[in-house]
């Protein structure tokens, strides 16, 4: 089926990367190139109506890609972000200390970074500044306590490291879009006098 007219008609169908040799020669890059070559070979064979050859190429490409996936060590940390151990250490510390004041300086010290670098790295990794993350976690903890206890909102505010009920209400409105009392009532039909 090596018809010159047929080949001309297929120009642009087979990706240009199949014929490219440019690029670096890192191990992952070489494996990716090998997988791409097998896929391109499968495409060419299929276009030439060589089904058996196409299936063999696809099988080899799948094996290369599966091997690459097995050798992967997990997601890389965000560029300029915290390492996975730093994220675990900081988030665990925050969870354990939500009932008290948490300063960026102590979080930075915990993962051996200066405060300004820590703030940027935290934002790159978790998508928000440390202070915003702590506030959001406090509001989420307050939501959990509102659903699982009969504690007053002022008690819940103190349990979540907030100054008072009005502080909780301000932050809660910002994150949840409604007052804590309305949120609690809507979810559990709770209308006790202690919710004021």
TrEMBL record:
Classification via SUPFAM superfamilies: Homeodomain-like
Gene3D superfamilies: Homeodomain-like
Domain HTH araC/xylS-type: 88-186
Pfam families per UniProt: HTH_18
Keyword Flavoprotein among record annotations: no
Top-level taxonomic group: Bacteria
Keywords: DNA-binding, Transcription, Transcription regulation
InterPro entries associated with the record: AraC_XylS_family_regulators (IPR050204), Homeodomain-like_sf (IPR009057), HTH_AraC (IPR018060), HTH_AraC-typ_CS (IPR018062)
Protein name, entry field: Helix-turn-helix domain-containing protein
Source species taxonomy: Bacteria, Pseudomonadati, Pseudomonadota, Gammaproteobacteria, Steroidobacterales
